[in-house]
Specification:
Elements (H helix, E strand, L loop, with lengths): L2 H10 L8 H22 L2 H10 L7 H13 L13 H4 L1 H6 L7 H21 L11 H16 L3 H11 L8 H6 L5 H18 L15 H5 L33 H11 L4 H5 L1 E8 L1 H11 L9 H5 L2 H11 L15 H7 L2 E5 L1 H9 L5 H7 L1 H11 L25 E7 L4 E6 L8 H17 L4 H8 L6 H13 L12 H6 L6
Parallel strand pairs: 1-2
Antiparallel strand pairs: 1-3, 3-4
């Protein structure tokens, strides 16, 4: 039996009672967090451009709504991720877009989210050791979109395999120059989401796809991974839940920047405005992945003219921002913040320093690479040595793959040392950023996403309603999502053409 057939038969048969309580709780928080991301993007200048281009996320056409939601959720680097991949553009956005026409109640919506999470994350994990990373991994959205739409529709497994075979036939290969140096990154999820929705329609009309599209020598994993791990696709179905590897993004910045931002936020509380103006040097100790991502984006950083993705991965800009304001927020990715002379003056004083111990901790954790390296064994360790240029890079990778993700973690840490012109020095450290997968997030993820929603201007009534998502019927879900995306945005003018929705929302389906 092919990998897609085995995965489809499990996912198509997944029902709400099959979800452990902790998985249902994660999925609820994931939906809440995703709505906060959509609201943040709607209040940003780039999000307003997307609404002008593609229309409202509350469109009556679910395919159009799914497309614009995917674009909105990817434009600020504010979306959640898991081991492996940025799956939520499809796994959450598509069920939200189809909630009305598929008449999804809270339980059906959450089950579709989990089914899509599992399908998308498993295939992404199987190809994780390859040339594409993060938001650029287009097949993540192709897998998740098919699963999310077809689960909500109650489609049989055979339709899933044909839709996947068609969707994965010509997966996009994004260019890093465009992602980092222009606003094209907003299409990185929207294009594959639309492709996969078309594949679903084609499969429903009788078009057949290649069932062995994942494992065939000419298939996806062979072409998109240097060290494929096809066994990951079906490992531990129903027991090894990728959904509980979620990292909840609390700031619109690259995941490898988060620890440095947490450190800067700590020091913001200890330094006066005069101290900040008197900073002589800022040293960021970071793991290899943080430095590599920063270097990749450096060529595209051009102060207020920088593309958002270049700012997202720039350690200096985000550290300077957090030192000044105590955090990084969506407003920091637009003028006047991006043209602030003090911010760029501080950024010019930031120096990155490699820390081998922090790099080892990254590899010991589940995400972003540790589990993939353990799954791949000796071949994975060789891939890492080639990737980093260090023969000892994989020294911290040991042991077999995890049989469960109940203890999954993500530990991309960092340290900060700020030296003032008067000779004083202050330091801060962060082993695991707030919101990253790990014991703290397992205990507090609902509190974190409630705060994230509140910061987007969402009313307490809507937040409380989303907290009870599993208990809502289909009409209640539709009305609540309408409200979540229609309530006034904080400290911003409504996007052009969006005013009527803010005033009255969309009518309920008859």
């Amino acid at each position: 039996m092919s990998l897609t057939r085995r995965l489809a038969e499990w996912a198509a048969g997944l029902r709400y009672p099959d979800l452990p309580e902790r998985i249902e709780a994660y999925a609820t928080s994931e939906v809440m967090s995703h709505l906060a991301v959509l609201r943040a993007s709607l209040g940003h200048p780039l999000g307003r451009k997307l609404v002008r281009a593609f229309g409202s996320p509350l469109s009556h056409d679910p395919c159009r709504a799914a497309q614009v939601m995917a674009a909105l959720s990817s434009c600020l680097y504010y979306e959640d991720s898991m081991y492996a991949g940025h799956v939520t553009h499809a796994s959450v956005g598509v069920p939200l877009a189809f909630r009305r026409c598929q008449r999804l109640d809270g339980r059906a919506l959450l089950t579709a989210v989990v089914a899509a999470n599992e399908c998308a994350a498993r295939v992404t994990a199987a190809g994780a050791l390859g040339p594409l990373r993060g938001q650029g991994t287009s097949y993540t959205q192709l897998m998740g979109t098919v699963a999310a739409r077809l689960h909500g529709a109650g489609a049989p497994a055979g339709l899933w395999t044909d839709a996947w075979g068609l969707a994965l036939a010509m997966p996009p290969w994004p260019l890093r120059r465009a992602l980092l140096g222009s606003e094209a990154k907003v299409l990185s999820a929207a294009v594959p989401v639309r492709t996969a929705l078309d594949a679903c329609d084609a499969a429903a009309a009788g078009l057949r796809g290649a069932e062995d599209i994942l494992e065939h020598p000419g298939g996806l994993l062979a072409k998109f991974s240097h060290v494929p791990s096809p066994e990951t696709v079906t490992a531990g179905l129903g027991t090894r839940w990728h959904t509980e590897t979620l990292t909840f993004k609390l700031r619109p910045a690259g995941a490898y920047v988060d620890a440095a931002v947490d450190c800067a936020a700590q020091l913001h509380a200890r330094l006066s405005r005069e101290d900040i103006r008197g900073i002589a040097e800022i040293v960021v100790s970071a793991p290899r992945l943080t430095i590599a991502m920063d270097q990749e984006g450096a060529a595209y950083v051009d102060r207020e003219r920088s593309a958002i993705m270049a700012l997202n991965v720039c350690v200096a800009y985000n550290v300077a921002t957090a030192l000044i304001s105590g955090s990084v927020a969506p407003r920091d990715l637009a003028e006047p913040a991006t043209a602030d002379p003090l911010r760029w003056s501080l950024a010019d004083r930031v120096r990155l320093e490699y820390d081998a111990g922090l790099s080892r901790e990254v590899l010991r954790a589940t995400a972003p690479l540790g589990e993939a390296l353990r799954q791949a064994g000796a071949s994975g360790r060789q891939w890492l040595a080639d990737f980093t240029g260090e023969s000892t890079a994989a020294a911290g990778v040991a042991g077999p793959p995890s049989s469960t993700f109940r203890e999954a973690d993500k530990a991309v840490g960092g340290r900060l040392r700020v030296t003032l012109r008067d000779g004083r020095a202050v330091t801060a450290s962060c082993g695991r950023p707030k919101g990253a997968a790990g014991p703290g997030t397992r205990r507090t993820h609902r509190e974190l996403v409630r705060d994230k929603l509140a910061s987007s201007g969402t009313s307490a009534e809507v937040i409380d309603g989303l907290d009870r998502l599993a208990s809502l019927d289909a009409r209640q879900v539709d009305a609540l999502v309408n409200r979540a995306l229609s309530e006034p945005l904080p400290a911003t003018e409504p996007p052009p053409g969006f005013g009527p929705l803010l005033e009255s929302g969309l009518p309920r389906p008859s």
